[in-house]
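Q: For a teaching session next week I want to show students how multiple molecules come together into a single three-dimensional assembly. I've collected the sequence lines for a complex. Could you give me the predicted structure tokens for the whole thing so I can convert them for display?
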Amino acid sequence: MSTTGQLEAPSQAGEAPALSCHGVRVSFRDHEVVCGVDLELDPGEWLGIIGPNGAGKSTLLRSIVGLADYSGAIALGDGQAPGAADVALVPQFPVLPKGMTVAEYVLLGRTAHLGWLARESQADRQIVSSVLHRLALTAFADRFVSTLSGGEAQQVVVARALAQQCPVLLLDEPTSALDVGHQVSVLELVDDLRRTEGLSVLAAMHDLSAAARFADRLILIDHGRIVAQGTPAEVLNADLLSAVYGTPLTVQPIDGELVVLPASRRHDKEPS
Amino acid sequence: MAEASLPTTALTDSDAAHPAVRRAFGLSVSATLIGIAVLVAVGFLSAISGAAGLPVGGIFASLFDWVPLIGVESSLSDQQESILFEIRLPRLVLGMLVGGSLAVAGASYQGVFRNPLADPYLLGVSAGAGFGAVLALGFGLDLGWGPFDTVPAAAFLGALVAVLASMAIARGGGASPATLLLGGVAMAALFSAAQTYAIQQLDENRAREVLSWLFGQLNTTGWKEIWLLLPYVAVCGAVLHVHRRHLDVLRVGDDEARSLGLDPVRSRLTVIVAASLLTAAAVSVSGLIAFVGLVVPHIVRLLISHSYRVIVPLSALVGAAFLAFVDIGARTLLAPEELPVGILTAFVGAPFFALVLWRDRWSTT
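A: Of course. Below is the structure for the complete assembly, covering every listed component.
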């Protein structure tokens, strides 16, 4: 893993951020994918990262959990580099091994809290039981993860991240494989956990309307750089989004929520 | 910091853990007891089978008399007792140790390589160990130092060279489990050729001796082979048993394993070294016994669980019972002639394995 730098100024409120990135750069061979990203995730906050495919969202998340070599500084509130007991990742395409039960899968979340030669204790068993109970997955405990539907599987992956007992939860486009009903229910589940368990959430999000609805703040990334950040109302600007995503988009308030839609195709067909 | 945000609200009503959660922790007591019972039953069956025709009652009496604090008058003559204690029992125990070792090594390789076809033979580990042992045996380097003799050491060296070389080949090919296995196949071919060449260079008597060992035999001279194998079984078995939890984490792939807090490279290397040492020790006392490492973990997986917390310890018991059982056939089918047990395990194992593949169609990871 890379260098840990002490961060200069904690946020003005006096409360240290749950997680902060400072000048984070990630390169694959000669190609820089993340080009100096600064961000601060406040405790209890949902920070959404949006941007087109290949903008560097996933790579940024991967560097936070130590899966990509980076330069710059990534630190927790206490200045330490994050480990698997501090930051839990819900991957975009989780591996669901054949023949592994839901209970066995959630138990894997305890790995970071076990010594090299240790085995799980009664306490770990209780944590797994309570997480299954909390997510209403107890009835699924004996099912094989490979036989679950997409929505069920994503809940189980969230359950594993919860069993990891980390104050920071990273989501990498957690709903890209789900239908709209399950998208909402998984995001609501995470939002609910954020409120009840005091988690901080950093989520790379595909669906801009969902990002507007769930995130407190948004960061828009393009070509590895932050091009806009602020509240959803500030960042979700039709002109900016159209430029970044390379297609005409409109932003409309519907029932008090911002909804991002492709601009009407009739405009394209008008003779110029 | 880490404990800050736990769903404490739910902790109170979870005192009665769901049975599935309890099962997730590993092998249940009842499954362990069934495994031990099967092993003991096969042990008794093996003890009463053989060319010498010892009276069954006398064998049982002698066996119970052997147990400390129990005194039973046995009807066996001194000669019959020595057949039991110096020929049958050592061979039975050796079969159990070798069978358990190969099965555990196979299960461990399947875990670290995330491949249900991984096995000491397919990975070239056995061929490497065999080549090392052929060199040491064939060129008279057997110094009689028991566990620390040159034969197991040379076998281990060969095994480690084979597995590390196949890993190096795989790294060039993108380090996927599949390329690694193909690297193993290449190493197996290379070491088998080297082995054949080495045997050709020996004089005829030595060559015959080495070849008959190579076929996979459970020939014992008293308890000597067992004392040779036992330290390796104890140390490597303990290491692999402790790491069975890691094998379950590795099932989700290296990236997720790392994000869960496991160093996959370190785990994999530890398990590979221990499994290779265990294979080498087994090969150096019994030659090449095929299919045990492949078939036994599959039986456990099909019948009990896909979790390595279960597969590793239960493969030890089932592997021990399996080889001891097959060896009964090796000793009695063509009595007074003996079949090399390695040929019989292949006869039993290959069709079984074909059946498993046909039924499950590769879906057994």
